[in-house]
Amino acid sequence: MSPEQTVRPAQWSEMDGVLLLRSVATAMVRLSDIASPGTFTLPYPDEAQRALNNTVLNCLLLKAKPPESLPHLVEWAACRPLDRWPITMPPDVVPAGSLLLDGATRQPTQLCYEWAVDAEDSAACHSEQRYMALASERCREENYPEAYRAFRRLLVRRPVLTHRELTTLPAAADSDLGPLGDLLHDVYQPAPAAYLDRDRRIYTACARCHTLLHPTTGGRLWCERQRCRELGTVRPGREYRADEGGGSQLLIRPLRQWVSAPGALEIRLARRLTSIGADVELWPGFGAYGMRVRFPDGTTLAVDHKDWANPALLGRRATPPSPDPPYDRCVWVVTVARLRDQPDFRATFERYRRSASPELMTDRELLRTARQLTGTTVLGVRHPAPDDEPTEGLF
Fold first, then answer.
1. What is the pTM of this model?
2. What is the model's pLDDT at position 125?
3. Longest dimension (CA), the chain
Protein backbone atom coordinates (compact mmCIF):
# COMPACT_ATOMS: atom_id res chain seq x y z
CA MET A 1 0.00 0.00 0.00
CA SER A 2 1.41 3.41 -0.92
CA PRO A 3 1.67 6.12 1.76
CA GLU A 4 -0.99 8.15 -0.04
CA GLN A 5 -3.61 5.41 0.13
CA THR A 6 -6.29 5.71 2.76
CA VAL A 7 -6.70 2.88 5.24
CA ARG A 8 -9.96 2.00 6.91
CA PRO A 9 -9.67 2.94 10.60
CA ALA A 10 -11.56 1.27 13.42
CA GLN A 11 -14.98 2.78 13.98
CA TRP A 12 -14.85 5.93 16.08
CA SER A 13 -18.21 6.98 17.41
CA GLU A 14 -18.71 10.71 17.78
CA MET A 15 -21.39 10.02 20.37
CA ASP A 16 -21.48 9.02 24.03
CA GLY A 17 -18.14 8.74 25.75
CA VAL A 18 -15.99 10.27 23.01
CA LEU A 19 -17.79 13.60 23.05
CA LEU A 20 -18.06 13.52 26.85
CA LEU A 21 -14.34 12.96 27.42
CA ARG A 22 -13.48 15.73 24.98
CA SER A 23 -15.80 18.08 26.87
CA VAL A 24 -14.52 17.17 30.33
CA ALA A 25 -10.85 17.25 29.26
CA THR A 26 -11.28 20.69 27.69
CA ALA A 27 -12.93 21.94 30.88
CA MET A 28 -10.13 20.57 33.06
CA VAL A 29 -7.51 22.28 30.88
CA ARG A 30 -9.34 25.60 31.15
CA LEU A 31 -9.82 25.24 34.91
CA SER A 32 -6.10 24.62 35.37
CA ASP A 33 -5.55 28.27 34.44
CA ILE A 34 -7.56 29.39 37.47
CA ALA A 35 -5.31 30.41 40.36
CA SER A 36 -7.38 28.63 43.05
CA PRO A 37 -9.27 25.80 41.36
CA GLY A 38 -10.57 24.53 44.69
CA THR A 39 -12.66 27.65 45.24
CA PHE A 40 -15.16 27.33 42.39
CA THR A 41 -18.27 29.44 42.80
CA LEU A 42 -21.37 29.81 40.70
CA PRO A 43 -21.65 30.67 37.90
CA TYR A 44 -19.06 28.17 36.66
CA PRO A 45 -16.96 28.91 33.54
CA ASP A 46 -18.88 28.04 30.36
CA GLU A 47 -16.73 25.05 29.38
CA ALA A 48 -16.90 23.65 32.91
CA GLN A 49 -20.67 24.07 33.17
CA ARG A 50 -21.08 22.41 29.77
CA ALA A 51 -18.89 19.48 30.83
CA LEU A 52 -20.82 19.06 34.08
CA ASN A 53 -24.16 19.16 32.24
CA ASN A 54 -22.94 16.59 29.69
CA THR A 55 -21.67 14.27 32.41
CA VAL A 56 -24.88 14.46 34.44
CA LEU A 57 -27.00 13.82 31.33
CA ASN A 58 -24.86 10.85 30.30
CA CYS A 59 -25.11 9.37 33.80
CA LEU A 60 -28.89 9.78 33.88
CA LEU A 61 -29.21 8.06 30.50
CA LEU A 62 -27.12 5.14 31.76
CA LYS A 63 -28.89 5.12 35.15
CA ALA A 64 -25.65 5.88 36.99
CA LYS A 65 -25.10 8.28 39.90
CA PRO A 66 -23.85 11.62 38.48
CA PRO A 67 -21.39 14.10 40.01
CA GLU A 68 -23.24 16.57 42.23
CA SER A 69 -21.20 19.69 41.40
CA LEU A 70 -18.16 20.93 39.50
CA PRO A 71 -15.82 20.23 42.46
CA HIS A 72 -17.24 16.70 42.48
CA LEU A 73 -16.51 16.36 38.74
CA VAL A 74 -12.93 17.53 39.41
CA GLU A 75 -12.66 14.76 42.02
CA TRP A 76 -13.83 12.27 39.40
CA ALA A 77 -11.13 13.51 37.01
CA ALA A 78 -8.42 13.25 39.69
CA CYS A 79 -9.42 10.06 41.49
CA ARG A 80 -11.69 7.96 39.26
CA PRO A 81 -9.91 6.08 36.43
CA LEU A 82 -11.55 6.61 33.05
CA ASP A 83 -12.26 2.90 32.65
CA ARG A 84 -14.60 3.22 35.66
CA TRP A 85 -16.61 6.15 34.31
CA PRO A 86 -20.18 5.36 33.19
CA ILE A 87 -19.43 5.92 29.49
CA THR A 88 -19.45 3.91 26.29
CA MET A 89 -16.20 4.05 24.31
CA PRO A 90 -14.61 2.44 21.25
CA PRO A 91 -12.29 -0.48 22.14
CA ASP A 92 -8.75 0.17 23.41
CA VAL A 93 -9.34 3.92 23.72
CA VAL A 94 -9.32 4.26 27.52
CA PRO A 95 -6.23 2.69 29.14
CA ALA A 96 -6.97 1.02 32.46
CA GLY A 97 -6.22 3.22 35.45
CA SER A 98 -5.79 6.44 33.43
CA LEU A 99 -6.80 9.79 34.93
CA LEU A 100 -7.53 13.23 33.50
CA LEU A 101 -6.00 15.05 36.49
CA ASP A 102 -3.03 14.16 38.65
CA GLY A 103 -4.29 13.06 42.04
CA ALA A 104 -1.68 14.96 44.04
CA THR A 105 -1.69 18.32 42.23
CA ARG A 106 -5.04 18.42 40.36
CA GLN A 107 -3.08 19.41 37.26
CA PRO A 108 -4.13 18.04 33.81
CA THR A 109 -2.32 14.87 32.82
CA GLN A 110 -0.80 14.42 29.37
CA LEU A 111 -3.78 12.20 28.53
CA CYS A 112 -6.12 15.05 29.47
CA TYR A 113 -4.37 17.35 27.00
CA GLU A 114 -4.57 14.71 24.29
CA TRP A 115 -8.34 14.36 24.74
CA ALA A 116 -8.72 18.15 24.76
CA VAL A 117 -6.73 18.41 21.52
CA ASP A 118 -9.02 15.80 19.95
CA ALA A 119 -11.82 18.35 20.31
CA GLU A 120 -11.65 20.59 17.23
CA ASP A 121 -12.52 23.78 19.12
CA SER A 122 -10.08 23.11 21.95
CA ALA A 123 -7.97 25.95 23.33
CA ALA A 124 -5.52 23.26 24.43
CA CYS A 125 -4.02 23.16 20.96
CA HIS A 126 -5.19 26.36 19.29
CA SER A 127 -2.93 28.65 21.33
CA GLU A 128 0.07 26.48 20.43
CA GLN A 129 -0.90 26.49 16.77
CA ARG A 130 -1.54 30.23 16.78
CA TYR A 131 1.82 31.21 18.27
CA MET A 132 3.88 28.77 16.20
CA ALA A 133 2.06 29.79 13.02
CA LEU A 134 2.77 33.44 13.82
CA ALA A 135 6.46 32.70 14.42
CA SER A 136 6.64 30.75 11.15
CA GLU A 137 4.89 33.51 9.18
CA ARG A 138 7.15 36.28 10.49
CA CYS A 139 10.35 34.35 9.77
CA ARG A 140 9.13 33.26 6.34
CA GLU A 141 8.32 36.86 5.39
CA GLU A 142 11.86 37.93 6.33
CA ASN A 143 13.47 34.72 4.99
CA TYR A 144 15.00 34.17 8.42
CA PRO A 145 15.02 30.42 9.20
CA GLU A 146 17.76 30.92 11.79
CA ALA A 147 15.38 33.00 13.92
CA TYR A 148 12.72 30.30 13.77
CA ARG A 149 15.17 27.61 14.85
CA ALA A 150 16.54 29.84 17.64
CA PHE A 151 12.98 30.39 18.88
CA ARG A 152 12.25 26.64 18.90
CA ARG A 153 15.52 25.86 20.68
CA LEU A 154 14.74 28.44 23.35
CA LEU A 155 11.31 26.92 24.01
CA VAL A 156 12.89 23.47 24.31
CA ARG A 157 15.85 24.37 26.48
CA ARG A 158 14.50 27.26 28.56
CA PRO A 159 10.85 26.70 29.57
CA VAL A 160 11.56 28.99 32.54
CA LEU A 161 13.04 32.49 32.32
CA THR A 162 13.38 35.29 34.80
CA HIS A 163 11.62 38.48 33.81
CA ARG A 164 15.01 40.11 33.33
CA GLU A 165 16.05 37.35 30.93
CA LEU A 166 12.77 37.71 29.09
CA THR A 167 13.40 41.38 28.43
CA THR A 168 17.14 41.18 27.68
CA LEU A 169 17.39 37.98 25.60
CA PRO A 170 16.13 39.48 22.31
CA ALA A 171 18.78 42.23 22.41
CA ALA A 172 21.66 39.99 23.50
CA ALA A 173 24.68 39.92 21.20
CA ASP A 174 24.40 36.17 20.65
CA SER A 175 20.61 36.18 20.19
CA ASP A 176 19.26 35.18 16.80
CA LEU A 177 15.57 35.72 17.57
CA GLY A 178 15.21 38.52 15.02
CA PRO A 179 11.51 39.36 14.53
CA LEU A 180 10.36 37.02 17.31
CA GLY A 181 11.70 38.85 20.37
CA ASP A 182 8.40 40.47 21.30
CA LEU A 183 6.59 37.13 20.96
CA LEU A 184 8.37 35.92 24.08
CA HIS A 185 6.15 38.15 26.22
CA ASP A 186 3.09 36.30 24.90
CA VAL A 187 4.34 32.75 25.35
CA TYR A 188 6.07 33.22 28.72
CA GLN A 189 3.71 34.14 31.55
CA PRO A 190 4.28 34.77 35.29
CA ALA A 191 4.86 31.45 37.05
CA PRO A 192 1.65 30.29 38.79
CA ALA A 193 1.61 30.51 42.57
CA ALA A 194 0.78 26.79 42.73
CA TYR A 195 4.40 26.04 41.77
CA LEU A 196 5.85 28.19 44.57
CA ASP A 197 7.34 26.76 47.76
CA ARG A 198 5.68 29.30 50.01
CA ASP A 199 7.96 28.65 53.00
CA ARG A 200 11.23 29.08 51.09
CA ARG A 201 9.78 31.50 48.51
CA ILE A 202 11.38 29.62 45.60
CA TYR A 203 10.38 27.86 42.42
CA THR A 204 12.27 24.65 41.59
CA ALA A 205 12.91 23.41 38.04
CA CYS A 206 13.15 19.77 37.00
CA ALA A 207 16.76 18.73 36.43
CA ARG A 208 15.73 16.65 33.41
CA CYS A 209 13.27 18.77 31.41
CA HIS A 210 13.85 22.16 33.13
CA THR A 211 10.18 23.04 33.57
CA LEU A 212 8.92 23.98 37.04
CA LEU A 213 8.12 21.26 39.55
CA HIS A 214 4.79 21.36 41.37
CA PRO A 215 4.84 20.91 45.18
CA THR A 216 2.36 18.30 46.42
CA THR A 217 0.43 18.07 49.66
CA GLY A 218 2.77 15.25 50.72
CA GLY A 219 5.80 17.53 50.58
CA ARG A 220 7.16 16.04 47.37
CA LEU A 221 7.75 17.59 43.96
CA TRP A 222 5.77 16.55 40.85
CA CYS A 223 6.84 16.94 37.22
CA GLU A 224 4.18 17.30 34.54
CA ARG A 225 6.18 15.15 32.11
CA GLN A 226 5.30 11.52 32.49
CA ARG A 227 8.72 10.32 31.38
CA CYS A 228 10.47 12.29 34.14
CA ARG A 229 8.19 10.71 36.75
CA GLU A 230 8.68 7.23 35.31
CA LEU A 231 12.47 7.51 35.39
CA GLY A 232 12.30 7.44 39.18
CA THR A 233 12.37 10.07 41.87
CA VAL A 234 11.94 13.55 40.40
CA ARG A 235 15.29 15.34 40.41
CA PRO A 236 15.20 18.98 41.55
CA GLY A 237 17.26 21.33 39.41
CA ARG A 238 17.76 25.07 39.33
CA GLU A 239 15.98 27.12 42.00
CA TYR A 240 14.44 30.52 41.26
CA ARG A 241 13.74 32.92 44.11
CA ALA A 242 10.29 34.40 43.84
CA ASP A 243 11.76 37.88 43.37
CA GLU A 244 14.80 36.83 41.32
CA GLY A 245 15.33 38.88 38.18
CA GLY A 246 11.92 40.46 38.49
CA GLY A 247 10.11 37.15 38.99
CA SER A 248 9.91 33.84 37.14
CA GLN A 249 8.20 33.41 33.78
CA LEU A 250 6.93 29.99 32.68
CA LEU A 251 6.29 28.92 29.10
CA ILE A 252 2.57 28.33 28.62
CA ARG A 253 1.51 24.69 29.01
CA PRO A 254 0.38 24.03 25.40
CA LEU A 255 3.85 25.00 24.16
CA ARG A 256 5.54 22.96 26.88
CA GLN A 257 3.39 19.99 25.90
CA TRP A 258 3.47 20.13 22.11
CA VAL A 259 6.72 22.01 21.32
CA SER A 260 9.22 21.67 24.18
CA ALA A 261 8.67 17.99 24.95
CA PRO A 262 8.94 16.62 21.39
CA GLY A 263 11.64 19.15 20.53
CA ALA A 264 13.93 17.80 23.26
CA LEU A 265 13.99 14.35 21.70
CA GLU A 266 14.28 15.76 18.17
CA ILE A 267 17.43 17.67 19.17
CA ARG A 268 18.91 14.56 20.75
CA LEU A 269 18.01 12.39 17.76
CA ALA A 270 19.50 14.98 15.42
CA ARG A 271 22.87 14.70 17.19
CA ARG A 272 22.83 10.92 16.98
CA LEU A 273 21.75 10.80 13.35
CA THR A 274 24.49 13.30 12.46
CA SER A 275 27.08 11.13 14.22
CA ILE A 276 25.96 8.17 12.07
CA GLY A 277 26.51 10.17 8.88
CA ALA A 278 23.11 11.65 8.05
CA ASP A 279 22.52 15.29 7.14
CA VAL A 280 19.91 16.63 9.57
CA GLU A 281 17.95 19.88 9.43
CA LEU A 282 15.80 20.67 12.44
CA TRP A 283 12.33 22.18 11.87
CA PRO A 284 12.73 22.68 8.10
CA GLY A 285 10.37 24.84 6.10
CA PHE A 286 9.77 27.06 9.15
CA GLY A 287 8.36 24.17 11.16
CA ALA A 288 6.75 22.02 8.47
CA TYR A 289 7.89 18.99 10.48
CA GLY A 290 10.46 18.07 13.13
CA MET A 291 13.54 16.94 11.18
CA ARG A 292 14.56 16.53 7.55
CA VAL A 293 17.05 13.66 7.48
CA ARG A 294 19.03 13.08 4.26
CA PHE A 295 21.25 10.06 3.64
CA PRO A 296 24.19 9.52 1.26
CA ASP A 297 22.05 7.51 -1.19
CA GLY A 298 19.66 10.46 -1.55
CA THR A 299 16.86 9.04 0.64
CA THR A 300 15.15 11.80 2.63
CA LEU A 301 12.98 11.25 5.71
CA ALA A 302 10.53 13.67 7.31
CA VAL A 303 10.67 12.83 11.02
CA ASP A 304 8.42 13.97 13.88
CA HIS A 305 8.63 12.87 17.49
CA LYS A 306 5.21 11.99 18.94
CA ASP A 307 5.26 11.38 22.68
CA TRP A 308 1.56 10.58 23.12
CA ALA A 309 0.08 8.52 25.94
CA ASN A 310 -2.99 7.42 23.95
CA PRO A 311 -2.18 5.51 20.73
CA ALA A 312 -5.78 5.61 19.50
CA LEU A 313 -5.87 9.42 19.63
CA LEU A 314 -2.45 9.56 17.96
CA GLY A 315 -3.60 7.18 15.24
CA ARG A 316 -6.54 9.45 14.46
CA ARG A 317 -4.08 12.27 13.74
CA ALA A 318 -1.87 10.20 11.45
CA THR A 319 -1.53 12.28 8.29
CA PRO A 320 1.68 13.14 6.41
CA PRO A 321 3.01 16.71 6.76
CA SER A 322 3.36 19.28 4.00
CA PRO A 323 5.62 18.05 1.16
CA ASP A 324 7.59 21.30 1.32
CA PRO A 325 10.48 20.69 1.91
CA PRO A 326 10.17 17.42 -0.06
CA TYR A 327 10.87 13.99 1.40
CA ASP A 328 10.64 10.33 0.38
CA ARG A 329 9.24 8.82 3.56
CA CYS A 330 7.47 10.24 6.59
CA VAL A 331 8.23 8.76 10.02
CA TRP A 332 6.64 9.36 13.41
CA VAL A 333 8.97 8.39 16.25
CA VAL A 334 7.98 7.18 19.72
CA THR A 335 10.48 6.16 22.38
CA VAL A 336 11.20 2.49 22.83
CA ALA A 337 10.24 3.04 26.47
CA ARG A 338 6.71 4.01 25.40
CA LEU A 339 6.22 0.70 23.58
CA ARG A 340 7.80 -1.22 26.43
CA ASP A 341 5.37 0.35 28.90
CA GLN A 342 2.41 -0.06 26.52
CA PRO A 343 2.91 -3.31 24.57
CA ASP A 344 -0.29 -2.78 22.54
CA PHE A 345 0.64 0.79 21.56
CA ARG A 346 1.61 0.02 17.95
CA ALA A 347 -1.36 -2.28 17.31
CA THR A 348 -3.82 0.29 18.68
CA PHE A 349 -2.20 3.09 16.66
CA GLU A 350 -2.53 1.01 13.47
CA ARG A 351 -6.16 0.19 14.26
CA TYR A 352 -7.20 3.85 14.46
CA ARG A 353 -4.95 5.49 11.87
CA ARG A 354 -6.60 7.08 8.82
CA SER A 355 -3.80 6.76 6.27
CA ALA A 356 -0.82 4.51 5.59
CA SER A 357 1.62 7.39 6.11
CA PRO A 358 3.41 8.22 8.35
CA GLU A 359 5.32 5.10 9.38
CA LEU A 360 5.55 4.52 13.13
CA MET A 361 9.03 3.73 14.46
CA THR A 362 10.74 3.69 17.82
CA ASP A 363 13.84 5.81 18.29
CA ARG A 364 15.88 2.60 18.25
CA GLU A 365 14.31 1.51 14.94
CA LEU A 366 15.04 4.90 13.38
CA LEU A 367 18.69 4.70 14.39
CA ARG A 368 18.90 1.17 13.00
CA THR A 369 17.38 2.36 9.70
CA ALA A 370 19.86 5.25 9.62
CA ARG A 371 22.81 2.89 10.06
CA GLN A 372 21.57 0.79 7.15
CA LEU A 373 21.13 3.82 4.90
CA THR A 374 24.55 5.25 5.77
CA GLY A 375 26.35 1.92 5.43
CA THR A 376 27.40 1.69 9.07
CA THR A 377 25.71 -1.72 9.27
CA VAL A 378 27.44 -4.36 7.15
CA LEU A 379 26.22 -7.96 6.75
CA GLY A 380 23.94 -7.53 9.73
CA VAL A 381 26.79 -6.44 12.03
CA ARG A 382 26.41 -2.99 13.51
CA HIS A 383 29.57 -0.95 13.94
CA PRO A 384 29.98 0.53 17.44
CA ALA A 385 28.77 4.10 17.62
CA PRO A 386 28.21 6.70 20.36
CA ASP A 387 24.47 6.57 19.62
CA ASP A 388 24.19 2.90 20.56
CA GLU A 389 21.39 3.42 23.07
CA PRO A 390 17.80 4.54 22.42
CA THR A 391 16.81 8.07 23.37
CA GLU A 392 14.94 7.34 26.61
CA GLY A 393 17.09 9.65 28.71
CA LEU A 394 16.24 12.89 26.96
CA PHE A 395 17.92 15.23 29.38
1. 0.87
2. 53
3. 70
